[in-house]
Amino acid sequence: MHYLQPVKFGQLSLHSSANVGMDKGDVTLFFGLSGTGKTTLSADPNRLLIGDDEHVWSDTGVFNIEGGCYAKCINLSSEKEPEIFNAIRFGSILENVLYNPATRTPDYDDVTITGNTCCAYPIEYIPNAKIPRMVDRQPSNIIMSTCDAFGVLLS
């Protein structure tokens, strides 16, 4: 899709997350490399999630081309990120996450394998997901997140 959208359809494909305001309908795009907070920022309980990773920005608006979410799981908790934590259930796929075989409870704090633990889940597992995953308006907010030696910077 990242090849076809620009070449065949003249639309800009993006590695970004996107959400839209419930009241004003203002669209926000979040840009950044993996691990800079796109998924966390876009899973705002007060906004509708268009998608957390792959989008197309066209003359008519923004739409998601992924259909699911892919979140970092390291130190995940229901207190810090309730939308993402609660989305991890039957039908989700955990990656590099250890779990207790007796209780089948994931241990999101265990970095024995790697600190790069992730989970994939359908976007419908987020209660405020925008279905269909598209909006017919242009973004009014663009957030670029970067990571440096001191932490995450938002501009």
What spatial form do the alpha-carbon principal axes imply?
globular
Termini separation: 28 Å
Mean pLDDT: 92
Largest sheet: 8 strands, mixed
Characterise the protein shown here:
This is Phosphoenolpyruvate carboxykinase (ATP). It is an enzyme of class 4 (lyase). It holds the Pfam family PEPCK_ATP. With 155 residues, the protein is mainly beta. The protein has one domain (3-144): Phosphoenolpyruvate Carboxykinase, domain 2. It has helices at residues 4-9, 38-42, 82-87, and strands at residues 12-21, 27-31, 47-51, 54-58, 61-64, 68-72, 93-95, 98-100, 105-107, 118-122, 134-135, 139-148, 151-154. The strands form three sheets. Strands 1, 2, 3, 4, 5, 11, 12 and 13 form an eight-stranded mixed sheet that branches. The mean pLDDT is 92.
Secondary-structure topology with pairs:
Elements: H1 4-9, E1 12-21, E2 27-31, H2 38-42, E3 47-51, E4 54-58, E5 61-64, E6 68-72, H3 82-87, E7 93-95, E8 98-100, E9 105-107, E10 118-122, E11 134-135, E12 139-148, E13 151-154
Parallel strand pairs: 2-12
Antiparallel strand pairs: 1-2, 1-3, 1-4, 4-5, 5-11, 6-10, 7-10, 8-9, 12-13
Pathway: Carbohydrate biosynthesis; gluconeogenesis
InterPro entries: PEP_carboxykinase_ATP, PEP_carboxykinase_C, PEP_carboxykinase_N, PEPCK_ATP_CS
Keywords: ATP-binding, Decarboxylase, Gluconeogenesis, Lyase, Nucleotide-binding
